[in-house]
Amino acid sequence: MKINIVAGMLAASIILGSCNSKHPDQVEKISQDDFNYKVDRFADIEVLRYQIPGWDKLSLNEKKLVYYLSQAGLAGRDIVWDQNYKYNLKIRKALESIYQNYKGDKNSKDWNNFETYVKRVWFSNGIHHHYSNDKIMPEFSQEYFEKLLNETQTLLDKRIVDVLFDQNDAKKVNLDESKGLITGSAVNFYGEGITEKEVEKYYAAKKSPDASRPLSFGLNSQLVKDSKGELFEKTWKSGEMYGAAIDQIIFWLDKAVTVAENEEQANALKLLIEYYKTGDLKTWDDYNIAWLKATKGNIDYINGFVEVYNDPLGHKGSYENIVQIKDFDMSAKMEVISKNAQWFEDHSPLMAEHKKKNVVGISYKTVIVASEAGDSSPSTPIGVNLPNADWIRAEFGSKSVSLGNIIDAYNQAGGSEKLKEFAYNEKEIELSEKYGELASKLHTALHEVIGHASGQINKGVATPKETLKSYASTMEEGRADLVGLYYLYDPELQNLGLVDDWKKVGMTAYNDYIRNGLMTQLIRIEPGRDIEEAHMRNRQWVSAWAYEKGKKDNVIEKIVKNGKTYFKINDYKKLHDLFGELLTETQRIKSEGDYNAAKNLVETYGVKVDKELHQEVLKRNSNFKTAAYKGFINPILVPKINEQKEIIDIEVTYPESFAEEMLNYSKNYGFLPMEN
Fold it and tell me: What's the whole-model pTM score?
């Protein structure tokens, strides 16, 4: 599971998404050198840099481990491009050929629009928007594009050129059942002519050796039809689909084993290598358990086909990689939540039969990111909770991390002007300025450590991807959000020494969440569109449900002042109780596998947009220069080699531009053929 962040949002408005969950603008001012965080700005996107504090304090072996793991991650970069859309690699090659070889007028509006288009495609790992899933439409004509192709002697099939400009494959991930979850999605997880019913039947027929420990069927494969119309899987492993890139991943993971910090870490890496060689899903589970137990080192990582948000049916994992260095100071501060996980479970409003009797193995760390790739880059989460298998969480727990230097980079590049525009009064602004950062950090921790680890599925009920289907992701993220919201307004936070004033922290968190869920996140939606992205849906259905259910007691009041709309919370205690009520129901839906209830909740409250309010929010937001989305280039880790060709140190450098890094990646990590 990922936690994602919305750049340019209001103070402490965290967007909780896998929590692999895709922010606070009020920040603690810390001493900074002349490091330039800002790299590029185009369309609605800003690209930033992040630092790796403490790099020089690492031992040589630790630096090598980080380097090898980062190389392994980048080796699989092209996989996510192909997963996102079957023509992405061909399109990227053509766009980059034009970008590097065009000798014509580079001051024209058309060329400027072409440059912007290329950067948007780079940022999204393909031609579909990284967040909305809509196809990115060029703001130049097809005639101009064909002229660029001809003048640079770049080849691109005519049918692919047409796709860039027409309405075919308009949505990477479609969640509107009426349009077909598979046929309406451009994502490259299923072959031509396959229907949802065929997929469900295919995977329903697969049985795990141990029903209480279900394998993640479909996680690492493309499902296609053979010449006879029979379904079969093309597994993502060495020697099969994506094998050329996977062999490179294995090469670098083998090197990582040689500098592992301890035996547990080495054993986990060996299992990951075995999984990439065989594609065996039992080995994947064994690896996840070993990875969970490897907690003693200073270096950790995420690598594999992990999050299933990009599959409308929730089976297929997108490739991603994050390499992490432990932040000792912040991790110690947040450890108190992990240690009290059972208290939170015992005191939750869940039905008794839905509570875990023994919450085990939760770890929470703040980490320093050293490298990201695949689905985590350039648009990155700010927190991650893994593994995703419910039975592993129940038996062995999970790892939760907050990406501290990523959050710091957002903060250093952010601003607070939007808070003053959308907050109802000075009191709200003052609360967010004083408590917003702390409220955000606590919500992140509670969402990841307590939220995703809480609750249990009834015996005999299948996994959420089977029962809740296309609603599983947004229901899980909303459930974890609700756990965090419920406890953010609780005196126990002060009893644990986490806050000095639990009421004010809780009020701040509620103000920011409702404001974002009902208004400010709409800046990411194009006029006339429904909400598609799972995390945006969950923030709206949580907020809109609470608003509607609290109308009788005027818990949340909609106020129009000077032609501007605001949402003012009048009763924080009753809102806390409403969050508890919704949490109870959300857990019941998950525990019982109640598909109809999930569908009704999400479709009623989380999909449709108030068009008038949307237009107003967009107009008010247009006064600000802050980008709606932010992402990052990675540092470049450069080995220093002696005469014996041994690594004697590794230096951290940075590319000069976003384009430089993207072109370098294509040149040095382009291991896949154009068709896979």
Answer: 0.79
